Amino acid sequence: MSATDDGTGGSPKPRLLEVQDLHVEFRTREATANVLNGVGYHVDEGETLAVLGESGSGKSVTAQTVMGILDTPPGFATAGTVRYRGEELLSAKEERRRELRGENMAMIFQDALSALNPVYTVGFQIAEQFRFRRGMSRKDATAKAAEMLDLVKIPNAKQRVKEFPHQFSGGMRQRAMIAMSLALDPDLLIADEPTTALDVTVQAQIMDLLDELRRERDMGLILITHDLGVVAEVADRIAVMYAGRVVEESDAESLYKRPAHPYTEGLMESIPRLDQKGEELASIKGLPPNLADIPPGCPFHPRCHRAEEECRETVPELHELRAGRHSACHFAEELISRD
Amino acid sequence: MTDPGEGRQSTLSTGADAEGVDEVRRDSPQQHEGSPEVGSKPREKQRGLWGDAWLDLRRRPLFVIGGLIVLFLLAIAAFPGLFASGDPNAQDLSLAREGPSAEAWFGYDALGRDIYTRVIHGARASIVVGVLATLLTVLIGSLVGLVAGYFGNKTDSFLARFAEIFLGLPFVLGAIVILSVFNAGIEGAPGMLRVMTQVIVTIGVLAWPISMRIMRSAAIAAKQQDYVKAAKALGASHGRIIFKHVLPNCIAPVMVYATIALGQYIGLEATLSYLGLGLQNPVVSWGMMISNSQQYIISTPHMLLFPAGFLVLTVLAFVMLGDAVRDALDPKQR
Amino acid sequence: MTEPILQVRDLVKHFPVQQGVVFKKTIGHVRAVDGVSFDLNRGETLGVVGESGCGKSTLAQVLMRLEQPTSGSALFEGADMFGKKSAAELRSLRRDMQVVLQDPYTSLNPRKTVGDIIGEPFEIHPEVAPKGDRQRRVQELLDTVGLNPEHVRRYPHQFSGGQRQRIGIARALALKPKVIVCDEPVSALDVSIQAQVMNLLGELQSEFGLSYIFIAHDLGVVRHLSDRVAVMYLGKVVETGTEDQIYEHPQHPYTQALLSSVPVPDPSLRNRRETIRLSGDVPSPASPPSGCRFRTRCWKAEDICAEQQPELAVRLDGGELAPDAEQGHPSACHFAERNEHVVS
C-alpha cells in the first residue's frame, strides 16, 4: 500500500519520518468524512518533501496528525502508523508527543499573524521556549531570541525582539514564525502553506530562507502547498495528494517531466504559464469528491479523461514504477513510458 | 478548526482547516449534479428566504410545540372567561393560603383569592405588556441600530451617543420619572389600558438601546461583506441594501435577545406595579402576583409557584419559537 | 482605431487616516491610488498586477463608484463618470459596468437563493427584463456560466467555491454590461477550478464582446487573460504595455523583479535561472518614499531616484525619454533597461 516500503533504495541518509497507511475520519452529526484513506510518505534527514494537493485533499490533516495537533473530535486517526526515527507516535503518550514537538519536530502555518499572540512581544514569544524548555533566565533567553531573529535575517534583531507582532510586516511575521519554530533546533520542520498569504517578491525571500536553513541544519522539511511553481523550485521529492490518498510520489524532476498520474498531469496543464500565453487552459472537469461519499474504485475516475471500467471498480494501489517513482493509477505504466 | 462544519473559515484554503469536512457540507448536493433533484421541479415558483423558512418551520417540532403553547396562552389572554369562570378578586379570608385542592387547583393566596382564576386573568396584562414591550424595543432598537451600523460615521456617532443617554439612566428611576410625569394631575387610578400603554412605552423608551447595540454591531459586520459591495455595484438603493441584504443577516442575535427580554419585561411590569407606578388592583398580572408572594415564599410556596410557572412557560415557548425561526432563517441550518 | 470604451486620467484616491473617537482628526493620508491613467479598448482585457497595498483593489472600487475618487477623471464611452450625475445616468452607468469580486464565500448573500441573487439586477433595473421573463433569464444565465438551471432555488452554501464564483459572474452578466471589473476573481480558487473559471471568462468575453479590467496578483493568470498589462506599485503604474512587451521585454526593475520572483514549475531550471531577489517588504502607502516609490527596494537606485519622480513614458534603454513614442512601451524608471531573460 505505502510508497515508503523501500523508498529510494540505498538512501544514504537516515529516515526521519515515516507515515504508513494513515486513515483519519472526521465525524460530525450528519456524516463521517473519510479525510485520509491510507496516506503514506517518508522524509529523510536534510530532505525536502513537497506535499502537493488542493483543498480537501488531506495534506494539512496529515501534517496535523503527524504533529499530534489534530482536533479530536471531530478528527480521529483510525488506522496507520507515524514513525519518527522509528518511534511509533500515534500510540505514544501525550507527554512524549509534547516533548517531541518543538524539540524534534516543529510546524509553521500560513497565517503568521494569527499564529503569533498579539499581546506579547515577538521576542518574548520566542524566548518563552528557551525559558521553559531550556531553563534559561529571562535575559539569556531574550538574547537567544534576538539571535534567532538574526538567523532568519530580520534586520536590527536586537531592537525588533521588543516589538509586537502587529508592528511586523507580513514577511517579517513569517520570518518570526520560522525563528520560533526553529528555536529548539528541531530536525523536522513542517511548513503548511508558508507563503500562500504573502506577495510573490516576499514569497521568494521566504522560500530561499527556508531552503537555506534546511541545508545548514540538515533538517527534514515537509512543504505543504498547492503551488506547483514553489514545489518545482525547492522540492527533492513530491507526494501528490487527492481525496485523502497519495496518488503519485516521485522525485521532482521526473514528476514534472512526465507525470505518472492523470491528476498530476491535469494540475500541470491547468496552471497558466508565465513564459507563454496559452489559448485555453486544459482544466480538470468537475469537482473533487465528497469525502463522506467517495466513489468506488479510483477516487479520481469521475474527473479522469482516461477512466475505464477497471477504474470504476478497483482502487489502484500506489505502486512502484521505476526507482523512486510511484503512482496510484491503473495506466501509470502507459503514462510514464509514452513520449 | 473548532467546528469544521461551520463552513469556510478564511479566504484562501487555510491549511490548518479541517479541509475535508468542510468539503462534505459544501459539496454534498453536487452528487446529484446534472440530474433533476427530487422535490425541486424546474418550474417551481421561487419562494425566497421567508417562504423557504416557513416551509422549514412547519416541519420543526420546536416550532410546532412552541407555537401551540403561545396560541394557548394567547387564547387565555383574549378570553379568560372561557378558562376560569370566577371573579379573580373574590376574597374569602377564611381560605387564605389554603393549598391546592380539587375546588381550587392552584390553592388560595394570602387574601383568600383563587390563584388559578387569578393566573388566568393575569395572563392578559402580562402577555400583552411582555409581547408589545418586546416588539416595541426590538423595532425601535433594530431600526436605529441598522441605520447607525450601516451608515456609520457621524450618523453612527450621534445615534450611539444618543442611545447611551438612555442606557445610562437607571431603569427604575427613569420609569418613575416618566410615569409620574404622564400621570401628574390625574385624579384616582388611571384605567388599565392607559396604564398598560404607559408601561409598554416606558419600557420601550428605556430599553431600546440594548437591541440597538446588538443590531448595530451585527450591521457593521454585515455591511462589510462583499455581497453588499456587489449590490452597490448593481445600483441598489440604501433601503434595498439595508432591508434585503443587511437585515436578514443581522436578525439572529436580536431574535435571541428578544426572547429573553420578553420574560424580563413581564417582570419589569411587576416591579413598576410594586412601586405603585404600574398596574394596580383590581387589575391582575403575573408580575403582581409574584411580587405579592414574596413574604410567603416559605409558608405558602404555591403562591409563587403557579404564576411563576406560567411566566416560565411563556418565556420558554417564545424562546423555542425564536430559536426555530432563527435556524429556519439560516439556510445552512436547514 | 476606435475610441477607447474607458479612459482614466490621473485618478487619485486618498483615504484619510483619522484619530480620535468623537472629534476625528486627520493625521495623514493613505495614498492608495495616486495618479493612475489608462485606456481600455472595446473587447480588450487590461490586466492590472501588483502586490498587496499597491492600490489595485482600490482602483476597482473607485471605477465601480463604490468609493468616490479624490481627484482625476474617467470617461466611459466619452462621458464623464465622476461628475455630478443624475440618478438616471448613474443607473445606466451601473448597467454598463459590472464587477466580479474575489471572495466567492462573502460575495453572495448567504440568505438568498441563487435565483434571487442573479435576479436582483433585474429587480433593481426592472426595465431590463419584464417581470414574467425574469425566471427564464436567470436560468439562461445559469446555463451560460455552466451551472444547472434547475438549481435556482438553492442557497450559496450548497455550492463549491468555483461554482459560487460562477454565480457571481452570472450576476455581473445579468445586465449585459460592456465592461466587467474582475477583482482577483480566481485567487481564492484551487488550481484545477481556477482554470475552469478562467476559461469561462475567456469564452464569455468573445461571446458577449466584453471588455475586462482584470485585477490579480498572480502574474501567470494575468498573462493568460490579458491583452495589455499595467504593473502597479504603491498606488502608481510603473510600467504598462502589451502582454508581450511586459512579459518578454520588461523595462522597469520592479516588473523584472516581480517576474523573476514567480516560481517556474520546472525543476530542471532550478538554480539555472537568473533570479532577482528584492529585499524587504512594500513600504506603507501612508508614507511612500520620496521620488521614485520603488527606490527603497531597488538595486539600481541612485540619488536622482530620491529627488525626482520618474514619469511614466516610453524610454530608451538607459532611461532617457524616447524621441519616438511609437517605439516600445511606457515605464517609470530613470534607469529603465530591457531585460529579456527574467522569464525562464
Automatic annotation (TrEMBL), chain A:
The annotated topology with respect to the bilayer is: Peripheral membrane protein
- Membrane spanning segments where? none
Recorded GO molecular functions are: ATP binding; ATP hydrolysis activity
Question: Looking at the UniProt record for this protein, which Gene Ontology cellular component terms does it annotate, in alphabetical order?
Answer: plasma membrane
Domain (ABC transporter): give its ranges.
17-268
User: What range does the record give for the signal peptide?
Assistant: none
Top-rank taxon, per record = Bacteria
Q: Does the keyword Plastid apply?
A: no
The principal localisation class reads membrane
PROSITE patterns the record matches = ABC_TRANSPORTER_1, ABC_TRANSPORTER_2
Q: Which family does it belong to?
A: Belongs to the ABC transporter superfamily.
This protein is called Oligopeptide transport system ATP-binding protein
TrEMBL record, chain B:
Mark the transmembrane ranges.
62-83, 127-153, 165-186, 192-210, 246-266, 303-322
Q: Where in the cell is it found?
A: Cell membrane
> Could you provide one GO biological process annotation from this protein's UniProt record?
transmembrane transport
Topology class, membrane = Multi-pass membrane protein
Kindly indicate whether the keyword Membrane belongs to this entry. yes
Domain ABC transmembrane type-1 span(s) in chain numbering: 123-322
Main localization of the protein? membrane
Pfam hit, one = OppC_N
Task: Alphabetically list the UniProt keywords.
Answer: Cell membrane, Membrane, Transmembrane, Transmembrane helix, Transport
Region (Disordered) spans which residues? 1-44
What GO cellular-component annotations does this UniProt entry give?
plasma membrane
Q: What family does the database annotate?
A: Belongs to the binding-protein-dependent transport system permease family.
Put simply, this protein is called Oligopeptide transport system permease protein
From TrEMBL, chain C:
Q: Which SMART domains match?
A: AAA
Q: What residue stretches are annotated with the ABC transporter domain?
A: 6-259
Q: Is the keyword Hydrolase assigned to this protein?
A: no
GO terms classed as biological process: peptide transport; transmembrane transport
SUPFAM superfamilies associated with the record: P-loop containing nucleoside triphosphate hydrolases
Which Gene3D superfamilies does the record match to this protein? P-loop containing nucleotide triphosphate hydrolases (3.40.50.300)
Question: Keyword annotations for this protein?
Answer: ATP-binding, Nucleotide-binding, Transport
Q: Which CDD domains match?
A: ABC_NikE_OppD_transporters
Cited PROSITE patterns: ABC_TRANSPORTER_1, ABC_TRANSPORTER_2
Note the superkingdom of the native organism: Bacteria
Alphabetized GO MF terms: ATP binding; ATP hydrolysis activity
Q: Which InterPro entries match?
A: AAA+_ATPase, ABC_transp_ATP-bind, ABC_transporter-like_ATP-bd, ABC_transporter-like_CS, Oligopep_ABC_C, P-loop_NTPase
Q: Which family does it belong to?
A: Belongs to the ABC transporter superfamily.
Q: Which protein is depicted?
A: Oligopeptide transport system ATP-binding protein
Query: Which species does the entry assign this protein to?
Result: Actinopolyspora biskrensis
